[in-house]
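**Reference record**
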Amino acid sequence: MEMIWLDCHHSQLSAQQLYTLLALRNQVFIVEQNCPYQDIDGQDLAADNRHILGFLDGKLLAYARVLTPAHDDSPVLIGRVIVSEEARGLKLGYRLMEQALESCEQHWPQHAIYLSAQAHLEGFYGRLGFKAVTDVYLEDEIPHIGMQKQ
C-alpha cells in the first residue's frame, strides 16, 4: 500500500479527520511522552493554517501542522510533527517533512520556515536544511531548540 498525503486548509478537514489528528497528537505528545500540556491551543482552525496528514490503509500515521506567518516578515511555523509509534523506523519523518516543506513553499514562498525541535532531533532537521537559531531551552520540561530554514 502507498501512503496517501493530504495538505488541507483547516476548512477542508472533516470532523473525522480533525478528531483523528487530535487523537494522534494526544497519544504521542501527552500520553506517550508523559507530558500534560494544552495541545488544543486555538491554532488548528485559525487563519490559513494547514494540516499535513499521511494515511496508510486508512490509518493516520504521520501528521504536521503549518501555521500562517504572523506578519509579512515572519516565518511560517511547522509544528506538531508526529509519526505514530507503530510507523517509526519507516522513514516517514522525512516524507512528512518533505510534504510540510512543499506546503510552505506553495503557500508562503517568500517566507523563512521555523520550528521548535526537540533537541535530540537537531541532526534530523539539519539534514533537511534547518539551522539552529536558539540555544537549547525547556518546553514542557523537554529540551528543545529553535531552528530555521531560509
